[in-house]
Amino acid sequence: MNAISALVTEEYQILPDPVTGVVTLSGSLRLAGSAEYAPIGEVLEATVAAHPEQITIDLRGLEFLNSSGINMLSKFVLNRRQSPETAVVILGSAGIPWQGRSLKNLQRLLPSLSLRIE
User: Fold this and answer.
1) Nearest to 28 by CA among 69, 71, 77, 89
2) Cβ distance 76 to 88 under 8 Å?
3) Which of 6, 45, 81, 96 counts the most CB atoms within 10 A of its CB?
4) CA–CA gap between residue 93 and residue 51 (Å, rounded)
């Protein structure tokens, strides 16, 4: 199995754990367009390719995500329709305003998605 690399900058951290299927996103993601978000999408897809029973995307420490990032997450969620054998769980924080509004839309794209806003 190929190792899935973390993405760490001064602004954000993307920390995958292919064994547990948890990908933790934290910091502030203000990248410009889909090309800059592609490596993050690749980390998510590589985590699914490791065949966990479920992938958990932990956004509780992600303070900001721009529209390009929301688009990347939306595409990832839509792709899960083709691989329903992997359950999707998204963890959000009630204390981060954008999450309550935007994450509910992901559930509309994939009704089986489990959204937990804490």
Assistant:
1) 69
2) no
3) 96
4) 27
Query: Which residue, among 68, 71, 91, has the nearest Cα to 21 in the 3D structure?
Result: 91
pLDDT in tens, 80-102: 998 788 999 999 999 999 998 89
Which amino acid, one-letter code, is at 92? Answer: G
**Could you tell me the two tokens for 34?**
């889909």
For residues 16 and 46, give the distance between their C-alpha atoms in angstroms, rounded to a whole number.
9
Q: What is the pTM of this model?
A: 0.94
Which structure tokens are listed for 110? 């994939």
